[in-house]
Specification:
79 residues, little secondary structure, two-stranded antiparallel sheet, flat
Length: 79
């Protein structure tokens, strides 16, 4: 007889949106400094396709699941 394992799924956390610093590629509000958005489920502080952190396995990935990343380094950004 087959058995089933269930687990509780946590709802996705919404992040406070800052459209001016958001790197979501497919959003028309990305980069806007006068956006009406306060919460957004697709807000990205990290976009692996725009990151130059060569030590990361997700570096350069267009479809990354990462929403935020401590090691994100924007292409062309100076330190």
């Amino acid at each position: 007889m087959a058995t089933t394992t269930t687990r509780e799924v946590q709802p996705q956390q919404l992040q406070v949106a800052d459209c001016q610093s958001c790197l979501t590629l497919n959003c028309p509000l990305s980069g806007s400094d006068n956006s009406p958005v306060t919460m957004c489920s697709s807000y990205r502080t990290a976009n692996c396709s725009m990151c130059v952190n060569k030590a990361c396995a997700l570096n350069g990935q267009l479809e990354s699941p990462v929403m935020s990343c401590d090691g994100f380094q924007l292409v062309g950004a100076s330190k």
